[in-house]
Amino acid sequence: MSDANVYMVGRTVFRISTETGRFTDSGVTDEKKKKTGMTGKQCMDAIGYLSNRQGFYSSLYSGLRELERDYPYDFDEIIHALEAEHFTDVADMILYLEQ
User: Fold this and answer.
1) What is the per-residue pLDDT across 46-79, written as a single tens digit (0 to 9) for each?
2) Which letter does DSSP use for residue 10 in this model?
């Protein structure tokens, strides 16, 4: 396994490859991905929406906002890694985050 930056946000652990900038344990191959997907803003908006309905997303959203405020470079890395997953919709993102 290549080197990875590890971030803990709420109860979610993000492992981002230092070589590719992608999540290292997504289990999804590039062939299965589409060229386009949800933007980082769309991911954050969806997590924000879900934060009002479920505790997991509330702590994740709060942690991401703290990261954005205190460590903007690390926040940007996570957002870019989310974008690199090319989620087709919110359900795709939820399935990934809850695996």
Assistant:
1) 999 899 888 889 999 999 999 999 999 889 989 9
2) T
pLDDT band at 11 (very low <50, low <70, confident <90, very high): low
- The Cα 10–Cα 25 span in angstroms is 18
Domain boundaries, the chain: 33-99
Amino acid occupying residue 56: F
**Number of H helices and number of E strands within the chain?**
4, 2
CB atoms within 10 A of CB 96: 15
Q: What number of other Cβ atoms are within 10 A of residue 65's Cβ?
A: 16
Q: Which long-range contacts (CB under 8 A, 24 or more apart) does 39-43 make?
A: 39/83, 40/79, 40/80, 40/82, 40/83, 43/79, 43/82, 43/83, 43/87, 43/93
